[in-house]
Amino acid sequence: MIGVGDMVLLEPLTEDSFLENLKKRFDHNEIYTYIGSVVISLNPYRSLPIYTPDKVEEYRNRNFYELSPHIYALADEAYRSLRDQDKDQCILITGESGAGKTEASKLVMSYVAAVCGKGQEVNKVKEQLLQSNPVLEAFGNAKTVRNDNSSRFGKYMDIEFDFKGDPLGGVISNYLLEKSRVVKQPRGERNFHIFYQLLSGAPDDTLKKLKLERDFSKYNYLSLDSATVSGLDDAANFRTVRNAMQIVGFMEDEMQSVLELVAAVLKLGNIEFKPESRCNGMDESRIKDKNDLKEMCELLGTEQSVLERAFSYRTVEAKMEKVSTTLNVAQAQAKTRHKVMGVLDIYGFEIFEDNSFEQFIINYCNEKLQQIFIELTLREEQEEYIREGIEWTNIEYFNNAVICDLIENNQNGILAMLDEECLRPGTVTDETFLDKLNTICADHQHFESRLSKNSKFLNDHSLPHNCFRIQHYAGKVLYRVEGFVDKNNDLLYRDLSQAMYKANHSLIKQLFPEGNPAKVNLKRPPTAGFQFKASVGTLMSNLQSKNPNYIRCIKPNDKKASHVFNGSLVCHQARYLGLMENVRVRRAGYAFRQAYEPCLERYKMLCKNTWPHWKGRARQGVEVLMTDLQVPAEEFSYCRSKIFIRNPRTLFFLEEKRKQCLEDLATLIQKIYKGWKCRSHFLLLKKSQVVVASWYRRYAQQKKYQKIKHATTMVQSYTRGWQARKLLRELKYQKKCEEAVTTIAAFWHGTQVRREYRKFFRANAGKKIYNFTIQRIMQKYFLGLKSKLPSMSPIDKTWPARPYSFLDGVHAELRRIFHLWRCKKYRSRFTEEKKAVYEEKLEASELFKDKKALYPSSVRQPFKGDYLEISKNPKYQKLSSAVDEKILLADVVNKINRANGKGSSRLFLLTKKNVVLADQKTGQLKANVPLTDLASVSTSTQTDGFFALKLKEGSASAVKGDFLLSSDHLIEIITKLHRIGSMAADREKLNIDISDEFLVQFKQDKVCVKFIQGSPKNGNSVSCKRKNNRLLEVSVPASS
Ligand SMILES: Nc1ncnc2c1ncn2[C@@H]1O[C@H](COP(=O)(O)OP(=O)(O)O)[C@@H](O)[C@H]1O
Ligand SMILES: [Mg+2]
Q: Which residues form the Myosin motor domain (predicted)?
């Protein structure tokens, strides 16, 4: 614990040590300190990590003094006594502007929300309670020189709980919004946040709908020098506010109406008036630029003319005040009684350069709160001492009741006089009001004015003429009277309220109920001061009916700076807040008191008799405890329900002992726990060891067993092998013996048989064996041959090899027979035509084979016979009709001319009876030679196609002479000629003469045709040349 957490325990108690303690704690981020149950809170001006959910858990359901001081401890205490003891609570948060009151109220609310019950409905309520803050702050907070987020209204929130402590809802009352801020803000301050938030954060289309522009400079009401505040994100806050409004329960159209109203106020600020003289000499005000008015009327749904008339008819002031929008006006209290926790966060005491009616009211309210603090603290103490039967001596402190009286006294209080002035007929000004004050309050100790009756302040130049000064409990404040009367009157001329009531806008209608023509009320409405006084009065009595919890906020410096502790400033606040007196009051009597039960509960471990349980009554237990601890009797006294402890030292002693005892207990618990832990660990280890060992043993034994088993098997197998081999040897021997016996027996039998049969064997056996062997060999040979026979093709020359040379002749004969047989088989498959063709070919072979060199090339050529198809050719129609026999051969041949040896083409036709020669082109018949006239045919031995048809001398055809022809189908032509001749029975065979020189009869002469091997220069062609009259030489290329 840094310093002393509770000032009551501070020793020695002086102002210096008090401040020293605060500073020490502040420097160590301990911003909270107790005075008994009062929490002093120093504004850290930076976020500290002490509001986390973990912290909430830490403080939840713990005793107030158990943990280091915290606002959560106070909230927890309040919430628990509300829930468990059914005592209504109020949390009073006081302090100067910027000291952290609003933050504190939010912390309290969030703590309560965090610890109270859960559930869908409850969470919704909690969320609504928490989200009411951003909405209220947007419309009620503004940046001031003291505080960037200063509350410009007082707020009192009653949170209602059911019997279980679950929140049911809340009622928020607000007090006197600083309306004048809408119209005018002091230097360095801003208007209410909502204006800036709307312009920076609303989407473009929303702004367009509201006829607004994003530029602050377009609006007279938005002060420009401090329009933006560092660390304040207006745009983001706008979204937060919208969201919060939704959660709190604003409908979409309601939100829209509110924003329209805000926009209308901005527009209103831009309307300017100019004076104008009328013909009747009266002055009148006229609106300069009507555009803003028009837009405003569109927003609010009013008629422009109505509003314009209302503005100008009674010319009162250039700029109109905003009418406060009351948010969540207190609803009628529920009928069934609920537990209530009130949180009061009201504007703090304020001293500005220029203080007006608002500051006066604010400071009056703070006076009242200080009053209630003094009263309740003292009364509570006093009553408690009396209740408990203790004698009480009064403690000196400054009672600010005189100041309250100065302000609120019904006869001559300042507020009463202000009201009187306002109601007085005749000209009333702020000056007449000040005059009145000067006469009536002149004697008051706390009132100062330049012109007070006795003029005792005439020489005080810090006091201007139109001002008065009040010595508040928290300091002197100079008030300027200007505007007091108007603001107190807070009058809205009926024309205006009626004009507004006529608007076609539900929210506006609701805000100006007095404009309803049906309810015209001629009575003056109560003044602002009167209303405020009354509401403060109600608030005070409300607070008094509840159990108070105090949070006293202190500002550590004036610069909103973190880590700066301004001793004199804190000292000033501590003084006027009466903190020292508070401590003294707590200490003068008894510094501490505690009911017997919790006391016994807390300290029972300090005595053997009470630990761990005391069976008797709590008071007796505490008595036993105190006696046992030997606390001097004057240090405490036993009262009715509580024990009172006079000196903090005694409490320290008890706490110290308890701490020691707790440490011992902790050690004991630790010791037992450690012992238990070690032992259980050991037991576990032991158990594991046994398991491991048993497993290992099992494993080892298994291994050993397997080894033995293996060895045994081995030995066994060797032995068995040895035995088996032995047996085998014996068996083998036995078998051999048996075999030997059989062999011997066989031989013996054989010898006997041979001896007996020798004589028969010698006579026949040799021949028989020979025959048998030969038979066997032949059988084998034929069977082998049968399986190895070659194919049936006549040209297949293969034949299996003979196995024995003595079979040579047989083998060759068999081969011949087989060949003949397969040839026969082959032939038997021929048709008649094919047979004729082969016969022809055979004849050609007989005629020319090895005789003429041309022959081999003809073997492959089939004998087609008719190469020309005369009958089908129309050209030769005549010719074919002339030849009446069947044409056996038709071809083109060359008829060799005797004169030059050159040839000319002729058709050559052969029938059974004739040879016909005809012109190739015309088909004209040239010669028709009956075959009977043919004597012979001559041809060479060479490869040429020359042949001569020699005619019988004396025949009819012989007249023209022989024919020397050449043909590509020489072999075929001659063969066919020969064949016809051989087939006809009546004719003799045609002679074929093959030689390289023969004679040809040309008419009269015989010419010799000689064939020679041509020289290579003649190429491959056959050429015929006339050598002389009697010789034609045919040169034939050498056959290769
Ligand atoms: N507990 C706190 N932790 C951090 N900052 C704080 C705390 N209390 C106050 N502040 C800072 O001080 C400023 C003023 O506090 P606020 O509660 O608005 O003052 P008040 O309501 O008393 O005028 C806050 O805006 C915040 O920046
Ligand atoms: Mg505030």
A: 2-659
| 610 within domain boundaries | yes
Domain final residue, candidates 671, 694, 720: 671
How many other CB atoms sit within 10 Å of the CB of residue 884? 9
- Which residues, in sequence order, are CB contacts of 656 under 8 Å at separation 6+? none
Most confident of the ranges 143-147, 192-196, 344-348: 192-196
Ligand positioned closest to the Cα atom of 154 = 2
> Could you say which ligand is closest to the alpha carbon of residue 350?
1
- Calpha distance 616→623 (Å, rounded): 11
What's the pTM? Answer: 0.60
CB of 144 shorter than 6 A to ligand 1: no
On whether both 845 and 794 belong to a single domain, the answer is: no
- Strands of 1023-1028's sheet in order across: 997-1002, 1005-1013, 1031-1036, 1023-1028
Ligand 2 centroid–CA 347 distance in Å is 6
Is there a single domain that holds both residue 896 and residue 806? no
The model's pLDDT over 53-92, given as tens digits with 9 standing for 90+, comes to 999 999 987 777 778 999 999 999 899 889 877 889 999 9
- 599 is in which domain, residue-wise? 592-671
Is residue 781 within a helix (H) or strand (E), and if so which, with residue range? Answer: helix 648-787
Alpha carbon of 638 to those of 618, 645, 755: distances in Å? 12, 9, 158
Whether residue 952 sits in one domain with residue 837: yes
Known catalytic residues? 97-98, 102, 147, 150-151, 348, 350
At 773-809, the pLDDT tens digits run 999 999 999 999 999 999 988 888 899 988 888 889 9
Domain count, the chain: 3
Tell me the CATH number at 604.
Answer: 3.30.70.1590
959 and 840 in one domain? Answer: yes
Query: Which ligand 1 atom sits closest to the C-alpha of 147?
Result: 14
Is 997 in the same domain as 857? yes
Q: Report whether pLDDT(694) > 90.
A: yes
The answer as to whether 508 is a domain residue is: no
